[in-house]
Amino acid sequence: MALYAAVARLGFRRQFAYMQAALWGMVTNVFFGALRIAVLLALFGKQPQVAGYTAQDAVTYVALTQVFIASFSLFGWYDFMRTVHRGEVAGDLLRPFGLLGYWAAQDAGRAAGQFVVRGAPMLLIFPLLWDMKAPENPFLTVVSVLLAWACGFAYRFLVNCAAFWSPDAVGIGRFAWAVWGLGCGFLMPLAFFPDWFRTALNFTPFPAMLNTTVELWVGVKTGAAAWEAVALQLAWTVVLLVLAQFVLSRGLNRLEVAGG
């Protein structure tokens, strides 16, 4: 565990290397957050609620999705895919780690660092500019945030494993990130979609990667429903991690680096 903790620390510290980039990334996130808030508030008009969301809930939804863009890598993640295509994965296999655990630790440090340099400041900025809601159940919301990252990482890693079968898997990744952005509730709250679409999504892991956290924060899910939602996040995380490990094993069996 000490080795994985060291990898996570390095991943965390790396995010502070380019603070100016982090600053402008945060400014960009706030700017587009303002545009998204304007669109959603226009949707509400004089209506007190839309699909169970108040205007305050909608503002909070936008703030949270902007806050977690970098930490959850919601616009895509190709790091492991690149190491496979370049042959660098051979060096990783020589390290005294399990490959999945190594990348999970590295990404955990990266996500935490991105939250510190970009996410946390935005959690202070958004309430100053708009009427943002405080979390209904802080403890359960924090647990949900951690599970949303873990579930999202497992999905991202699984998609990156396509590099073992394709010499250029970036196209597969782009399609996967588009589906993810829609299914996790980043583009629009899932409550705003038709019932049949939300029912179909309930059979996928995507809501567990962001939407569940938002619904817990704004209080759409409370009491027993909140605990059930977190339990479902945990179940999907375990399923995807097991699947990622299985696919990784199959991919490594067919891996060739420099003809080896």
UniProtKB/TrEMBL annotation:
Protein name: ABC transporter permease
Domain of life: Bacteria
Transmembrane segments: 21-46, 58-77, 111-130, 137-155, 175-193, 226-248
Assigned keywords, A-Z: Membrane, Transmembrane, Transmembrane helix
InterPro entries in alphabetical order: ABC-2_transporter-like (IPR010390)
